[in-house]
């Protein structure tokens, strides 16, 4: 049966395989938690033009392409997905303001390069904590530095942390890379 047209938030937790994902143009928030991989995302996914919050905690081989065409998504959280990167199409999601790809079952080894360009560079909140293989190298530092709207960054328990160079310690490298005016107050508070 179709969802009620007045429904604006839906949270699903499935112990078994989901056979179909419910879609509704009126949804503003969708949370899906499951142990099995998600079924194919329906082609009608892009019709959810009011969806501003998407929360996924389920095994994914790759980020579902239809989700990169959602025009209003401001908050994207993934956990337990096994993702190792984000698709390049995410650069075109101009509404994205908060991204949380928390481990320990996400497997990022680097800061996703897609965040450094296009509309995705408008992020204000980036949470990459507990991605135990995460290394913030020179390329990752460049991506973080390009996020001029960023006011919150979490790299807690990134096993590899920031890769030091000849210029100083891990903390000095990160501080120098993020010392842009919008971040300076946050960095002082962090230290």
Radius of gyration from CA coordinates: 17 Å
Pattern of helices and strands: EEEEEEEHEEHH
Number of strands: 9
Separation, N- and C-terminal Cα atoms: 53 Å
Strand order of the largest sheet: 1-2-3-4-5-6-8
Tell me, briefly, the overall form. Answer: globular
Structural class category? alpha/beta
Low-confidence stretches: 180-191
Q: What percent of the residues sit in helical stretches (DSSP H or I)?
A: 10-25%
Query: What does the average pLDDT come to?
Result: 79
Give a verbal description of the structure.
The chain has helices at residues 138-146, 170-177, 181-190; strands at 9-14, 29-34, 53-57, 75-79, 98-102, 125-127, 135-136, 152-154, 161-162. It has 191 residues and is α/β, with parallel strands linked by helices. It has a 7-stranded parallel beta sheet with strand order 1-2-3-4-5-6-8, with no helix packed on it. A two-stranded parallel sheet has the order 7-9. The radius of gyration is 17 Å and the shape is globular. Residues 180-191 have low confidence and may be disordered.
Question: TL;DR?
Answer:
By secondary structure, this protein is an alpha/beta fold.
Secondary structure elements and their pairing?
Blueprint: E1 9-14, E2 29-34, E3 53-57, E4 75-79, E5 98-102, E6 125-127, E7 135-136, H1 138-146, E8 152-154, E9 161-162, H2 170-177, H3 181-190
Parallel strand pairs: 1-2, 2-3, 3-4, 4-5, 5-6, 6-8, 7-9
Which keywords apply here?
alpha/beta; two-stranded parallel sheet; 9 strands; disordered C terminus
């Amino acid at each position: 049966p179709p969802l009620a047209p007045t429904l604006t938030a839906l949270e699903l937790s499935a112990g078994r395989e989901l056979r179909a994902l419910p879609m509704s143009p009126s949804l503003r928030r969708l949370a899906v938690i499951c142990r099995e991989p998600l079924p194919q995302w329906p082609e009608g996914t892009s019709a959810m033009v009011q969806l501003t919050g998407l929360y996924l905690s389920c095994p994914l081989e790759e980020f579902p392409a239809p989700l990169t065409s959602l025009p209003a998504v401001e908050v994207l959280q993934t956990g337990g997905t096994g993702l190792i990167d984000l698709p390049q199409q995410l650069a075109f999601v101009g509404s994205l303001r908060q991204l949380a790809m928390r481990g320990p079952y996400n497997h990022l080894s680097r800061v996703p390069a897609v965040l450094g360009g296009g509309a995705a560079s408008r992020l204000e909140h980036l949470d990459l904590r507990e991605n135990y293989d995460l290394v913030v190298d020179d390329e990752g530092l460049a991506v973080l530095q390009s996020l001029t709207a960023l006011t919150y960054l979490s790299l807690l328990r990134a096993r590899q942390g920031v890769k030091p160079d000849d210029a100083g310690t891990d903390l000095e490298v990160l501080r120098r890379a993020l010392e842009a005016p919008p971040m300076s107050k946050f960095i002082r508070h962090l230290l």
